[in-house]
Request: fold
Amino acid sequence: MYKMSALSLILLAVSGVYSDSHSLRYYFTGVSAPGYGLPEFSKVGYVDDQQIDVYSSDNRRSIPLAPWLKKNERPEHWETVTDIAKEHETLFRDEVKIGMKRFNHTGGFHLVQVMHHCELRDDGSVIGKQQYRYDGREFMYLDVEKATYYPIMAEAQITTQRWNSEDVKMGEIAKNYLERICVTNLKRYIMYGKEDLERRVQPGVKVTHWESGKVTKLHCQVYGFHPRAVDVKWMKNKDNEIPPFETTNVLPNPDGTYQIRVSAEVTPKDGDRYSCYVDHSSLREPLLVQWEPPHGFPWLWILSLVMFIIILVVASVFARALLSKKKKEKYKAASRGMVFSSRISWYFIGSKQP
Reply:
């Protein structure tokens, strides 16, 4: 399992970073039985938007994927990381069984997902997050500041009570990992991959529209940018934000850049101006690309085209008629010459007869 699973993509979309910062994220997935292309357990690591390593119960080895990580970390490091991943694999077998018990599931395909996330911002502040999901739905979370777990579903109450108890204090253990160990690893990875991670590519912007009755749907396509974090929205008269009716996730391009499309529905009136606002770390200042509404039907242009075609046809007919007339005149002249020659020949031939 060398690439992120579709289930991890769900967590990635939810936990995207929308500021010019760096983050380290790990996605753990355990299933009740192998299926749907998923191993029984997997662990996938990301720095910002770049996959750095992967562990799977199919091969039971932590494999570095980022070139800069392969280059800088020693083999002993990956042996240690593999041992830790094996411990998580054993733990998740129990977590899946506990989850099924909490939700009264005795069989079938079920999964437990956990995300560990630490973020280092430009101002030096640190953010930590943990998310827990069962069958794709979040059922509990960690308040890092309070080092306390809170249930989102009733089925998580037993677990949160036990983890928050004085003899366990799981929240403090997780807080220490997210704010210290995770951040320390992140700083080291940033140093290793600085050239790649801090690459800046400015976005391209294209605005289009589609009309449906009196409503106009505006589309703003932003493409070819890096890093992933971007802010895109539609503005009316440069200062009024328009709520989008559709926004795609930030999607990767084959060349390592990204793209996103944001759409809005409007009813244009005289004097209204609509613009797509784009802010990205590669830009000195945000872009404001204005949408130009279509003008009225181009009757004058069409009329001019029709007149041109008519003139072209008339000229063509006239030229053919003139050419035909010249051919006829040449034919008559040639015929007279042939008759005259024939008569002369007959005269001379005839004069020789006895």
